[in-house]
Design brief:
The protein is of the alpha/beta class and 455 residues long. The chain has 15 helices and 13 strands.
């Protein structure tokens, strides 16, 4: 039996996500991001294509590294304005039955106690279709917005994350035992208080002394996504994540990252195949290769080069305006998204990138590769990537929305299905059960969260 390829849609509650400038294209609808109709229509399109989930990125702060100012990001709508991603989930859940929702929330800026309630609430309302993309933040502008003076160091942010995870695991997994909820109308007892426990977490960064405010949701702990591909981020993913989002410009870069994460998972005592690894990609397709190429050339006319460099400067913490435009970029330490710079410098010693080349690459699809071709060409590329890099699937960014996602749902997915590479129907149950099989609504015993459960 052939391995099924998994697909997530990659979007953000903003105007310009991964393709700066393309919001100006006459067929693009990204500037209606602040309407419920945008999100409900998108959710229905993705469910038609049987996508596993909508993976929603998020960022606190503004990309103000480029030219030392936020002006370029603001003028080009480079991930600003950006609305709260959690607020649109309930509306999408109402119009879908199976689509999952992986939402980025930075643990750096919110205490575990209210955050755990927010995720449990959404897991209830979606009937167990929630996922959390665990990030630690990387923008200095976000830190200043939160009233702090400087960014915590990259690796220390992951030490904070470790403490955070222990706190939320206890709230989700240990506060309410199975059977604690009675809902007994005859006796008037809603809950068995002997099976409800006050959590007392006294960690180096967070303290919690409380009963979790929510009764157990279908998954208790949401499906855990993780998108950090730095060395420290990979270890965190190997320890905690179920779905891992990696990013890079080539198969060589991605293949190395995937192998390292699976090795680390095995060393942590987990089944490395339990990690579903997705790499970012942007697809431009049509019924023929010539039509797809024409579509791509049309898209390129709307790219904002300055916007692309503002995006890359924010990700890496390096002002690309201060670098020689035609000389290779060299790796340098920066307290931002370490993996973003590694991908274009040390990850592939045989390939060097100038700022101009990075701008052209990032203009459509950000840091990930772009596939242009007929729906059969795209299916071929997906097969090659899975075989050569050992990824399980793809986080698909858009060039135009909803056009990119409609093309994939209506052209590429049927071709994958015809090749036996794609599911013919959604599996029943929660998001975790759809990914891992029936009876797997909760995290397995091999996961660190299981250690806090009441026997």
């Amino acid at each position: 039996m052939k391995k099924h390829i998994s697909l997530n849609a990659f979007d953000m509650n903003c105007v310009g996500h991964q393709s700066p400038g393309l919001w100006t294209h006459p067929r693009d609808r990204a500037d209606s991001y602040n309407t419920l109709e945008y999100w409900t229509d998108l959710a229905k399109t993705l469910e038609r294509g049987q996508f596993d989930a909508l993976f929603l990125a998020d960022v606190l702060g503004i990309y103000d590294v480029y030219k030392g100012s936020a002006r370029t990001a603001l003028e080009n709508a480079v991930q600003v304005p950006v609305n709260d991603p959690l607020m649109v989930i309930s509306a999408m859940a109402v119009v879908t039955t199976h689509l999952g929702f992986g939402v980025t929330c930075a643990l750096t800026y919110e205490h575990p106690y209210p955050f755990a309630r927010r995720m449990s609430t959404l897991d209830h309302l979606t009937r167990g279709r929630m996922g959390w993309n665990i990030v630690t933040g990387y923008l200095d502008s976000a830190v200043k917005g939160m009233g702090r003076t400087e960014q915590t160091s990259h690796d220390e942010r992951y030490e904070i994350a470790e403490d955070y995870m222990q706190a939320v695991y206890k709230l989700w997994e240990a506060s309410w035992e199975d059977g604690a909820v009675l809902r007994d109308r005859t006796t008037g007892r809603f809950a068995d208080t002997d099976k409800i426990h006050r959590i007392q977490h006294d960690g180096p960064h967070f303290k919690v002394d409380a009963i979790h405010l929510c009764e157990p949701s279908p998954q208790r702990t949401p499906v855990l996504y993780q998108a950090g591909a730095s060395t420290r981020g990979r270890q965190f993913a190997a320890d905690h994540a179920e779905c891992v989002f990696v990013n890079g410009p080539s198969k060589k870069v991605i293949g190395g990252i995937v192998a390292d994460i699976r090795r680390r998972a095995a060393e942590a005592g987990r089944d490395p195949r339990d990690l579903r690894i997705y790499t970012m990609m942007t697809v431009v397709t049509d019924s023929t290769r010539e039509a797809a190429l024409e579509k791509f050339r049309d898209y390129q006319r709307y790219v904002s080069t300055d916007g692309a460099l503002a995006l890359m400067s924010g990700w890496t913490g390096i002002d690309f305006a201060a670098l020689p435009r035609h000389e290779p970029v060299k790796f340098q330490g920066a307290n931002a998204m370490t993996s973003a710079l590694e991908a274009f410098t040390i990850a592939d010693p045989g390939r060097s990138w100038t700022p101009d080349e990075i701008a052209r690459h990032a203009g459509i699809g950000g840091r990930g590769p772009v596939i242009v071709g007929s729906y059969k060409d795209v299916a071929d590329e997906f097969e090659d990537w899975v075989r050569e890099t050992d990824v399980d699937g793809f986080n698909l960014a858009y060039a135009l929305t909803p056009e990119t996602f409609s093309d994939i749902a209506d052209l590429v997915v049927p071709e994958l299905r015809a090749r036996g590479l794609y599911k013919s129907a959604y599996a029943p149950g929660t998001l975790r059960e759809k990914l891992y099989g029936a009876g797997r609504a909760r995290l397995p015993a091999s996961h660190p969260a299981a250690r806090v459960r009441v026997a």
